[in-house]
Amino acid sequence: MTMKRIFTLLIMLTAVLALAACGTSDEKSNATDSSTDSNKATEKVIIGIDDKFAPMGFRDDKNEIVGFDIDLARAAAEHMGMEAQFQPIDWKTKESELMSGRIDLIWNGYTITDERKEKVLFTKPYLENSQVVLTKKDSTIKALSDLAGTEVGIQALSSAADALNSNPIHKDVKKITEFGDNVLALTDLKTGRVDAVIIDAVVAEYYMTQEPDTFKLLEESLAPEQYGIGVKPGNEALLEKLQAALDKMNEDGTAAEISTKWFGEDKVLK
What we know:
Residues 1-20 form the signal peptide. InterPro entries: Iontro_rcpt_C (IPR001320), SBP_3_CS (IPR018313), Solute-binding_3/MltF_N (IPR001638). By secondary structure, the protein is of the alpha/beta class. It folds into two domains: 44-126 and 228-263, Periplasmic binding protein-like II (D-Maltodextrin-Binding Protein, domain 2), CATH 3.40.190; 129-225, Periplasmic binding protein-like II (D-Maltodextrin-Binding Protein, domain 2), CATH 3.40.190.10. Helix content is 43%, strand content 23%. It has nine helices and 13 strands. The strands form three sheets. Strands 5-1-6-13-7 form a five-stranded mixed β-sheet, with helices on both faces. The chain has a five-stranded mixed β-sheet with strand order 10-9-11-8-12, sandwiched between helices. Strands 2-3-4 form a three-stranded antiparallel β-sheet. Residues 2-11 and 13-39 have low confidence and may be disordered.
């Protein structure tokens, strides 16, 4: 083979390798672009919930997480261009879950209190609530004063405990039993292991509609309160983005529509 022919073949081989390298580079570039687009499209906000807190957030007959707060959170995430991912947590450790970064938001009937304001950032209040007393239908308890000498159930580390402790009647209550969630508390109420349960009004009203022949709701309430959404301190950017989404949902009627679906009326604070 002549030197000229060898030189020609070397030039052709170099050209082929160069084209192959360009193709690989383009493919990597396209893959990177695709991956970046995918990440942008699936950016998630992880929301810590109590999945036994009907009608705010709970599991339906198909074991799917549903509720007023669930629908509201999904709509807010959509307004933010994000995807809501719900993470059931032990409600007693909600602030710890937030501080650790395992969740981005506490959002499930989360009452705004002065003590909690020292730990987390809050959105503006979005729903009014109060702590009330739920008893069995045939109970002789008819007023707060009748709780004297009785055994009362509450959800551990919930605002129900604060409401009861701030009322003088707590000194006369025979025993206070803490439960991991409201479902367990109401189960013990039905079986007679406790005489009454201090519980959120929105939750009590839901169970009254579900089991009208089982429960009775006292007219007197313990304490008015408001729900807000908790954000980790230092994450003001997320708080601002979320609040803007909530404000927009109030303006465009989304929040009112969700409230009417779950409560039969617009209860959302403007």
